[in-house]
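name: query_chain
kind: protein
chains: 1
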Amino acid sequence: MNTNHLLTCEACRVIDRSDGVEDGQLWNPDHYATPLRRDLFGLMRRVQDHTADSITAVAGSMRFVYIHMIWFGVWIALNVGLAGINHEFDKFPFGLLTMIVSLEAIFLSTFVMISQNRQAARSDLRSDLDFENNIRGEIWSVHIGQALGLDVDHVEDVVRRAIEGAQEAMRNASQAGGRGSTKPDS
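structure:
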């Protein structure tokens, strides 16, 4: 961006001053640059990731619980002789069942972590896009305000006071929530 234009455009000067210094720098490009994420979308489409998501979806359902209840019930019934079959392949305390369930838990927890990592990557991408849109919207708003002849310093003061009021209200609400009641004292 042309630095000379920044010094003559009042709207850009307001944006420039928002960091406390009018230095001709609207932002640090290294800090605000959003990396290209095409490789992320390619990664998200890989078979392993879809498999992990599918397994996590099944494991996070009541159907999974019901299947395991039936499986454990049948396993125990067969091995304590309740099924009328006199062939116990895993005697009490069911060491083979314990080992199978432990291995299943290890793999399921790994699949859940893979799915959570993918969700975190998607969330990071959304945050980057939201940030870019917020910057774009702020720059447009300041320029439109200048074109309309609005007092940008007054608008910024109102915004600052509104943010401070909202933050104070959130602090009060969280403090009231900590006491177990959000009702004001009478």
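note: The first helix runs from residue 3 to 8.
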